[in-house]
Write a structure and sequence with these properties.
Helices cover about 70% and strands about 0% of the residues. By secondary structure, it is an all-alpha fold. The chain has a single domain, classed as Orthogonal Bundle (Arc Repressor Mutant, subunit A), CATH 1.10.10. The model has no long low-confidence stretch (mean pLDDT about 80).
Length: about 55
């Protein structure tokens, strides 16, 4: 569980998001790509990249 908090914290710091918004971004990216949330979070850490929210529509 602490890894999930770490990954959420990375998003919060990199993109200026609150805790809920960071988790929502991880979750929505997971759903859009049909990839497990844990894999999305691991990729975030491994790539040192950022996740960009996509417009809903």
């Amino acid at each position: 569980m602490e890894h999930a908090h770490l990954r959420r914290g990375i998003l919060m710091a990199r993109q200026g998001l609150g805790a809920d918004a960071a988790f929502d971004l991880l979750r929505s990216t997971s759903q859009q790509l049909d990839v497990k949330l844990t894999e999305i979070a691991a990729a975030l850490v491994d790539s040192r990249g950022t996740l960009t929210p996509t417009p809903e529509g």
